[in-house]
C-alpha cells in the first residue's frame, strides 16, 4: 500500500487478473491529439485506451502478459506525445499539426 501511495500513477486492478487498468498523464491539446494518442495504442494486449482532453489523463486497460506498461508509454511517445514516463523525440513532436503542438512538460 505504501508503494502505491508513493507512486504518482494510480493503479487499479480490474476483476479479471489478466487485465490491468492504468491512469496516467499524457501531454496534448485537442481532439486530433486524442485520436493520435488513442490510435498509438491499437495494439496487441490493449483492450481500452481513452484520453481525456480536459484532464489530460489517459486510461488504459491492458493485459500485462501481452504488453508492458513501459511499452504503452513508448507507443504514445512514438507518435509525438510526452507521458509521465517517456518523452517524445523532438523530431516527432515538430511534425505534429500546428494545433497539436502542446506545451511540453519540463525536462
Ligand atoms: Cu491536437
Q: Could you give the topology of this structure?
A:
Blueprint: H1 2-6, E1 10-13, E2 20-25, H2 31-39, E3 46-51, E4 57-62, H3 69-78, H4 90-94
Antiparallel strand pairs: 1-2, 2-4, 3-4
The structure holds copper (II) ion (CU).
In words, what does this structure look like?
- By secondary structure, the chain is α+β, with helices and mostly antiparallel strands.
- The protein has a single domain, classed as Alpha-Beta Plaits, CATH 3.30.70.100.
- 27% of the residues lie in helices and 21% in strands.
- The protein is built from four helices and four strands; from the N terminus they run αββαββαα.
- Strands 1-2-4-3 form a four-stranded antiparallel beta sheet.
- A hairpin with a 6-residue loop joins strand 1 and strand 2.
- It binds copper (II) ion.
- Copper (II) ion binds next to helix 2.
